[in-house]
Amino acid sequence: MTGVVAYNRELFIGMGTGTPIKFLELDDTGGGSVPSDMTASVFYVMHDSRKAIVTGTAKPGAAIRGQGVDVVADANGKWSAQVSDLKYGANTVSLASYDPSTGAKIASTEVTVTITGNGMVASVFQVLPESGRAIIGGNAKAGAEVKSGSAHTTASGNGDWTLEVSGLKMGSNKVTLTSHDAKTGTQLSSADVTVDLDVAPLTAAATFGETVTEGATFAGVAQPGATVTITGPEGVRATTVADGSGRYSVRVDGPGKPGQIDFTVTQTFSGQTSAPVSVSLDYGRAVAIEGPADGSDVAGGDLDVHGAGLTGSTVRLLDNGEPVATGTVTNGQYTLTASGLDRAEHVLTVEQTGRGNNVTTATVTVNPGKTGSVEQPLEVTSPRIEDGYVSGEATTFTGKASANSTITVTNKWGTSLGGHVTADADGNWSFTRVMTGTSTYNILFTEVTTSGMSNTVEFFGFAAKPAAVKTFQVTSPRVSDGYVSGEKTTFTGKASAGSTITVTNKWGTSLGGDVKANAKGDWSFTRVMSGTSTYNIVFTEKTITGATNTVDFFGFAAKPATVKTFQVTSPQVSDGYVSGEKTTFTGKASAGSTITITNKWGTSLGRDVKANAKGDWSFTRVMTGTSTYNILFAEKTITGATNTVEFFGFAAKPATMKPFQVTSPQVSDGYVSGKATTFTGKSAPHATISVTNKWGTSLGGDVKADAKGDWSFTRVMTGTSTYNIVFTETHNGTETALEFFGFAPQK
After folding, report:
1. Rounded Cα distance, 745 and 722, in Å
2. Which helix (H) or strand (E) holds 490?
């Protein structure tokens, strides 16, 4: 049925096709008073389409509204309207009349329309995506059984029903419902609804972390509460659950393989898994050993293992499964040292940890099938006892021993003269000590081999000898080296101890003050030379005996300043840093350039610095923890040009152990009677230093070194005695003695 029409006081009902059917004739001839109240009655019911024609009276011109009705009463107060979307069973239709001018409600009434038949309607009330369910409701014949799959319910007395359906899939689901006679089971009608199970589309991306030990981070957006699974070539690598906003993030360690690796990411929600999203990561090259060759023979001792890897990765060397060295791949190359190898078989493995915590390994075997080193007698080959030593100068002892054995050096009473040394793979060893005063040393060299055997050599009667006479000379620079205008030039040389050196041009005009040679005959003279002059310099020595010697240093000409390329000169990447201590980077750049320091992602590591007029620059930072830094130094010149230096793989290292020593004063400085003399020195951090004479009598109690290994001891010395002092360091139960003999009053 398509509509109701009133024309010339006649009511027509259109049936969709053909001629409209006239149902009644409207009377407008009067026959009574014009109605002011409102009436309504059911004129005609269309059961199959669940519609009805309702007619009635109201105040003429009043607007009749309700249940989707919006018509106007005619001049006689008569009206008619069609009511749609009625339910099966009884329907109460509420209508009201309104003043057309003011909109005020005039009157209201209700009429009951009963729809009979076997039809049904259905719509989606609620969607439950997390469980793949939906609540569907509608209207059917009262008492009919409503079904969808295995789910079923019974329509109420007015035909209303609701039904929960399950097993819905992601996306659009067509659900068919049928109504059946409750007694016979005969199908009465059917209806289709569409249930949209909306699930957020899956997105995925992966990034590498700041350090190589961090796994790659997979992140994106999924359906809130969905389980996200990351799968690699070897299977499932990680799972996580999207949060309430749908976001997820999870770390995945490397696959242990090099190159481009493909992953898939899926989300599982309501028991269903989405189509995969592909993500690729490039883990770079695997580690390789380029030397030594697999199966090669090596002599033992310190062995460099070198090869190729992924720049910025950390590498670790294992000797027969035990870690012996670590480092960083720089510019695609690395070198690691296995120290003190014997000549037996060694399986050497390099383990590389690259970006995304991706670990690859390479292995070689050296000295295959061999069992160890050959022992040889301990001997001192140089110097000879009769050669003696020069007081205040370093004496180096060299010798032969069994490969990789340990040689300890003491006096004949067992007091250490400076620790121990280790022989190399060929049995060579050396030991250096500065001996002072005029003492005759009785030295004992003791060897302990790798097999535990012990051997000793007595080196008794090693006496002081006079220092060799130095001829007067300029040792640096050479005339041909020239000078850079405006920069300091330092001349160094040799002369007789205590000599005075005068520096003039060839006409005798002084080029600066006189300088003196020290007790070893060393001297230096510094002058800033400018312009382009060629200098003819005369160095004149006057010895303490009054003798004179000269050196002509003619033709010393200006040379161009060396062009500085942008570089980091100190430290080296391999030097590493000590956590919690200042690290100062120095380098060269164009004069006046600005140097910016960041990590490899551009995050600043401190304020910019400027190169001085000579192109020198420095930058200091305290680095903490155990992170490996990938630092980028960027130069911007005063002309706007830019240059960069990658300083990648700068790793933490242990704090350096300080050797035990007296740094001030020197034995030759002597003391002033009655005044305090302060001795300062270096030792292991927090070590205890005791101060005695050579017979063990305390000279004033113990002192402790600070956290940096610095220590000091103060004593007032009187009279004219010559002190033979022994400083003894105690650290972790080990004692190290240092002789400070011949400390006499100043003259």
Report:
1. 7
2. strand 488-494
Domain locations in the chain? Answer: 3-115, 121-197, 205-282, 288-366, 379-465, 473-554, 567-650, 661-743
pLDDT over 70, % of the chain: 92
Count other C-beta atoms under 10 Å from residue 163's C-beta: 21
Order of strands across the sheet with 515-516? 515-516, 500-505, 535-542, 548-556
CB-based burial of residue 621 (10 Å sphere; 0-12 exposed, 13-18 middle, 19+ buried)? middle
3-state secondary structure 180-235: ECCCCCCEEEEEEEEEEECCCCCCCEEECCCCCCCEEEEEEECCCCCEEEEEECCE
* pLDDT of residue 22 exceeding 60: no
When pLDDT is cut at 50, 70 and 90, the band that residue 19 belongs to is very low
Beta-bridged to residue 695, according to DSSP, are none
What DSSP designation does 331 have? Answer: T
Nearest to 336 by CA among 292, 366, 285: 292
**In angstroms, what CA-CA distances link 157 with 154, 285, 432, 500?**
9, 76, 111, 128
Place of tokens 């927090």: 686
Q: Residue 437: pLDDT band by 50, 70, 90 thresholds? A: confident
Check: CB of residue 702 under 8 Å from CB of residue 741: no
pLDDT at 624 over 90: no
Q: Does residue 23 have a pLDDT over 80?
A: no
Which residues are CB-contacts of 271 (< 8 A; sequence separation ≥ 6)?
132
Sign of CA dihedral 166, 167, 171, 173: negative
145 residue type, one letter: E
CA distances from 707 to 366, 578, 682, 727 (A): 42, 13, 11, 19
CATH of domain 661-743: 2.60.40
Give the closest residue to 605 by CA, choosing from 615, 614, 596: 596
- The superfamily in CATH containing domain 205-282 is Immunoglobulins (2.60.40.10)
Q: Check: pTM over 0.85? Answer yes or no.
A: no
Level-2 CATH architecture, domain 288-366: Sandwich (2.60)
Question: Does the CA dihedral 680-734-340-650 come out positive or negative?
Answer: negative
Dihedral class, residue 379 (left if φ above 0, else alpha if ψ from -120 to 50, else beta):
beta
Compute the chain's Rg from CA coordinates.
51
Give the 3-state DSSP-derived string for 66-110, with helices as H, strands as E and coil as C. ECCEEEECCCCCEEEEEECCCCCEEEEEEEEEECCCCCCEEEEEE
CB 301 within 8 A of CB 340: yes
- Three-state SS sequence of 647-675: EEEECECCCCCCCCEEEECCHHHCECCCC
Pick the CATH number of 121-197 from 2.70.240, 3.10.110, 3.40.1350, 2.60.40: 2.60.40
Residue 254 burial (10 A CB sphere; 0-12, 13-18, 19+): buried
Q: Measuring CA to CA, how many Å separate 16 from each of 1, 2, 656?
A: 6, 5, 102
At residue 5 the predicted structure's pLDDT band, cuts being 50, 70 and 90, is very low
What would the two tokens of residue 489 be? 């030039």
CATH topology for the 379-465 domain: Immunoglobulin-like (2.60.40)
- Asked whether this chain's domains 205-282 and 379-465 adopt the same fold, the reply is yes
Tokens at residue 565, please?
């390329």
CATH class, range 567-650: mainly beta
- Residue 47 and residue 675: Cα distance in Å, rounded? 127
CB 496 within 8 A of CB 522: no
Contacts of 347 (CB under 8 A, 6+ apart): 319, 320, 321, 363, 364, 365
Q: What is the reported pLDDT for 638?
A: 87
Q: What would the pLDDT profile of 273-284 be if each residue is shown by its tens digit?
A: 888 999 999 999
Backbone dihedral angles phi then psi of residue 386, each to the nearest 5 degrees: -70, -15
